[in-house]
Amino acid sequence: MKNELVKLGGLWRSKSKNGVDYLSGSLSEQALETLCAARPGDKILIFRNDSRTERGPDYTMTLAPRRSDGPAPARPVTPDDPVTDDDIPF
After folding, report:
1. Which residue among 11, 45, 75, 78 has the highest number of C-beta atoms inside a 10 angstrom radius?
2. Quick check: is 35 in a domain?
3. Are residues 34 and 8 in contact, defined by beta-carbon separation less than 8 angstroms?
4. Is residue 29 part of a domain?
5. Can you list the alpha helix ranges (DSSP code H) found in 22-88?
6. Where are the beta strands (DSSP E) in the chain?
7. Residue 38, class by beta-carbon neighbours within 10 Å (0-12 exposed, 13-18 middle, 19+ buried)?
8. What's the domain range around 34?
């Protein structure tokens, strides 16, 4: 997945019978597949839809993949891994 925003869908502002404000929306099959491919560190962002039409969503929901310019995650050490003097920092 590239380091660019991926649109997941729209969210509409609503009010419950008890007067509580909430956002609702649904995920398309493509959006669900995108979420299933998400990795730890990816973020879900919600933006106000400034170009909203009469029936359009109030907000848009997007996935922002984690930045790949940081260090790669370390591989977990297993009991079978050999330990050398180079692995000891002192």
Report:
1. 11
2. yes
3. yes
4. yes
5. 29-36
6. 6-15, 21-24, 43-48, 59-64
7. middle
8. 6-66
pLDDT digits (tens, 9 = 90+) for 43-63: 889 999 998 888 899 999 999
- Provide the residue count of the chain: 90
Residue 58 counted as domain residue? yes
- In degrees rounded to 5, what are phi and psi of residue 15? -135, 130
C-alpha to C-alpha distance for 90 and 87, rounded to whole angstroms: 9
Asked if residue 9 lies in contact with residue 31, where contact means CB atoms within 8 angstroms, the answer is yes
The predicted-structure confidence for 65-89, as pLDDT tens digits, reads as follows: 887 665 555 666 566 666 555 655 4
Domain count, the chain: 1
Residue with tokens 């007067």: 19
Global confidence as pTM: 0.64
Residue 76: what pLDDT? 63
The residue among 81 and 3 whose pLDDT is bigger is 81
CA distances (Å), origin 67, targets 25, 33, 79, 85: 27, 20, 31, 33
